[in-house]
Design goal:
With 535 residues, the chain is an alpha+beta fold. The protein is 35% helix and 19% strand. It contains 16 helices and 18 strands. A hairpin with a 4-residue loop joins strand 17 and strand 18. The relative contact order is 0.10. The N terminus is likely disordered.
Length: 535
């Protein structure tokens, strides 16, 4: 049996050496028997491993190169203001402005994709508003809005960072936004039993030159274009529109009334003005298991041409959306170009006058600055160079990173209604109201000067403003207001270091100014400022 078996396997029965059999021939194939288990020659396997190592090294180097680029924030100015309400308790509306979302992710050790829309360290910003007045219950609450404002950016960060390299197009970013709403709503309902109220939302995500918006409930938003066109961002959801009726019928509710005042009614007689929102547990955990409210927002995406075609977009809480027509909101914003804090301050002040005493009015404006979505790259690059190793530098007479400024300054003091001598102290809100009045007058004059000096650069006629000198002497509480003529309010050349030392958003607003421009309302340790860059 041994002899027969050896012969069958191709070995000599006497010494068990290989014979010229199929097994022996198989061993001698290729390069003298140097094959792997797959039959591929070892020299070829080594080449494949070398190619894989090179590809892996190239990918690592590309990752390091991308990560070594300075993180650039979106080239925008953004601000938001909440005003109104009874003054008791926590606010119903919350807004969260993540001006440099990529930097926040970097500090959290989260890596965003590096392909598609996210290639070349594309600037990313996230701006969100949550309104507890846009809920299904008759009495608004603050808990859901507060929770969403604190946690929404985390969900967006998680979902964007989870996108595969080949799934970073417009469609997938929209899906990531929708999933962020779904994840947060599920977490709110299942893990926060103390939060029974709900809220609406208006969210904008900037990724490079792409704008993604998501609006939920009775909040609203708009995008204004240079040719006068207004693009509504959230009008097709939130109320019992025709598109919603089939879904509502499946949930076992009926629509009562028509138009903006229509409501939904459950079988047991409960009424609600909204059909979509975050939270509102009682309207989502229903007896028949079909939720009445949906947490899916209206999602839109727009490729921006930046300041060449689009100028700004607004996010509004429910009372603001109900107080204004779109044209009136646009007119207010255009009266304060490149000045979002002044614009939203004017919007919410007027909205409070038109709304119920308990209404809380919130608006967020994002103004797109000239220079495209990478307009802040040069500024960030200059700051990165300044932060390098300390070296001896030759002294020069001119600091090229400085800006020559003049200003009007208003002092304020919150929490102290009167001075020791009995005089009333101006609050911050009162100071901003006065500053907006000054800014409106100067912006109107700037239009006249631009028309009069057509074809000339703004810095060439910046000092020709008679109104600035008059208003500065009348209102400014800085000693520089006592200077004569065109020197009135002059701060001279102010370096970046000195701008930063003033605190607040002083440095940020100066960085956005071109010669001749007026700033938005700047804050510092001294008070409020209206700045003009004159060189």
């Amino acid at each position: 049996q041994v002899v027969a078996g050896a012969a069958a396997w191709g070995v000599c029965p006497s010494c068990l050496c290989p014979q010229s059999t199929p097994v022996a021939r198989m061993v001698s194939q290729g390069q003298g028997g140097h094959e792997g288990f797959s039959g591929t020659p070892l020299w070829k396997i080594k080449e494949q491993y070398a190619a894989q190592r090179e590809a892996s090294m190239a990918e690592s180097l590309a990752y390091v190169a991308a990560r070594s680029k300075p993180i650039v924030p979106p080239n925008v100015l953004v601000d938001g203001i909440c005003m109104g309400g009874s003054g008791a308790g926590k606010p119903y509306t919350r807004h969260a402005l993540v001006k440099d979302f990529r930097k926040v992710a970097d500090r959290s050790k989260v890596d965003f994709p590096m392909t598609g829309l996210f290639a070349d360290q594309a600037p990313i910003g996230l701006y969100a508003l949550f309104d507890g007045q846009s809920s299904a219950s008759e009495v608004p609450g603050h808990l859901a809005a507060e929770y969403c404002a604190k946690n929404f950016h985390k969900k967006v960060m998680d979902n964007i960072s989870s996108l595969p390299p080949n799934c970073t197009s417009e469609t997938y970013v929209k899906a990531a936004l929708v999933k962020s709403f779904e994840d947060l709503d599920k977490e709110l309902i299942e893990t926060q039993p103390d939060i029974q109220d709900g809220c609406g939302a208006a969210v904008a995500l900037l990724v490079g030159d792409m704008l993604f918006t998501a609006v939920l409930g009775l909040c609203d938003g708009l995008l204004y274009e240079v040719d006068g066109q207004v693009k509504p961002l959230g009008r097709t959801q939130g109320r019992p529109h025709l598109e919603e009726k089939s879904r509502l019928q499946r949930a076992g509710v009926t629509v009562v009334g028509t138009g903006p005042g229509s409501q939904i009614q459950t079988a047991d007689g409960q009424l609600a003005s909204v059909t979509r929102g975050m939270g509102d547990v009682a309207w989502k955990k229903t007896p028949n298991g079909v939720p009445v409210l949906s947490c899916i927002p209206e999602i839109q995406s727009t490729k921006l041409s930046w300041a060449e075609k689009q100028k700004f977009f607004l996010l509004n809480s429910r009372p603001v959306a109900e107080a204004f027509a779109e044209k009136e909101l646009v007119d207010i914003a255009l009266a304060f170009p490149n000045q979002p804090r002044a614009a939203v301050g004017e919007v919410v002040t007027k909205a409070v006058e038109r709304s119920a005493p308990t209404a809380q009015c919130t608006a967020v404006e994002v103004w797109l600055l000239a220079g495209g979505f990478l307009g802040m790259a040069e500024e960030v690059g200059a700051e990165t160079k300044d932060e390098g190793p300390a070296k001896k530098k030759q002294k020069t007479t001119t600091d090229m990173t400085s800006a020559r400024l003049r200003h009007i300054m208003l002092k304020f003091q919150d929490g102290a209604p009167k001075t020791p001598d009995g005089k009333k102290v101006r609050s911050k809100a009162e100071a901003e109201t006065l500053m907006r009045k000054i800014m409106r007058a100067l912006n109107e004059e700037a239009k006249e000067l631009k028309s009069k000096h057509r074809g000339r650069k703004p810095e060439d006629y910046a000092l020709k403003s008679e109104r600035f000198t008059k208003l500065c002497k009348e209102h400014s509480e800085c000693p520089s207001a006592q200077k004569g003529g065109a020197m009135c309010g002059d701060l001279g050349w102010v370096s970046k270091d000195m701008q930063s030392k003033r605190g607040g958003n002083f440095r940020e607003l100066v960085a956005a100014l071109r010669p001749g421009d007026y700033s938005d309302i700047a804050t510092s340790m001294e008070g409020l400022h209206l700045l003009q860059r004159i060189a």
